[in-house]
Design a protein that fits this description.
The protein has 421 residues and is α/β, with parallel strands linked by helices. The chain has 14 helices and 10 strands.
Amino acid sequence: MTKKSAYKIMVVEDEAVIALNLQQMLTKMGYDVIGVSYSGEEALEKARSLRPDLILMDIMIPGKLDGIAAAKIIKAELGIPVVFLTAYSEDKIIESAKQAEPYGYILKPSQDREIKATVEIALYKKEMEKALQESKERFRNLTEITSDWIWEVDKDSCYTYISPKIYDILGYDPEEIIGKTPFDLMPPDEANRVSEIFNTLATSQEPFDCLENINLHKDGHPVALETSGIPTFGSDGEFCGYRGIDRDITERKRIEEELRKAYDKLEYRVKERTKELEVKTRGLEELNTAMKVLLNKRENDKTEIEDNVLTNVKELIAPYFRKINKTKLDDQQKTFLSIIETNLNEIISPFTRKMSLKYLNLTPTEIRIANLIRHGNPSKEIAELLNVSPRTVETHRKNIRRKIGLEGKRKNLRSHLLSLQ
């Protein structure tokens, strides 16, 4: 309790001596006696102007308003608590006094400690009522500004409290829902599903969180809700029901559904595109295979043509050059013949570099010696390997140079042979 000097008390007593004694007694206790009235009308007027924290009022006072009537008006109009002082204890008077809802009832004559206890209890009760009213006001403000619907149900799942937010969510006034169950607001199949879940929770008296369910708006359209609740218990520990909130998640569910459809559509398009790419890939693979076959065929044809050209030159033309060289030619004729032979060798030289030794009209022995030369073996070693004389090897070297077009040229035989396939 705050300091007693903060409390202002008004005394209503038609007997001046008693009024003075009360004033002195209360002042001694530390209270601030801000006024004394002798009639009901005067008490009402001073209460309006002075606004005391508590009024000690005699029931039997002169005037048109007795203490009970004045207390009723003060309580209804100003909310100021009243403690009755009276010498009467008859049941009829007490019953009449109850209608004014007094904060205490003191019988005259009374002791100081009795008055002190009654006054302190009355002031404490008023403070508690004020705190409770402020708490209720905060709760009311909270329920009005929150976007969630706050509710309470009893152990039979019947609504005992509904916040006004239900009107924004489902279109009902709270009074229309009190006494109904949550399942009364759901489609039949949904009601059966959710009731099974809720009954299991209620049996175990467990809290629950984010239970999604469908309710029907007053106009009939479905509303998706997310429900959370905790069990409530009485002072004796007995299960009383549940208290919780419902949150409107209709928009969230709509967005989730749109995202799901977009994902499914995208996944379908990816699968279709993948199939198209697989078909194109197979087509490209088949085309690539066909191209490889064609390129191989072209390369083979090219090689065959080169081989034929080279072979024809070596077999059909070269022999006649040798025969003509053995005839009697003047210097001019020899010059022309040399030019023709040189130009022809230049024409077939690209083919010659790509030809295997077997296409150069080499004998088997000459091919063996050519391979040994390519591997860097000198003539002496070649003679020993083939069991022939070095002279014979030199003769074969000259024939090889002539057949591959190096006769009379200052070009290394081994380097030229290495350039051949």
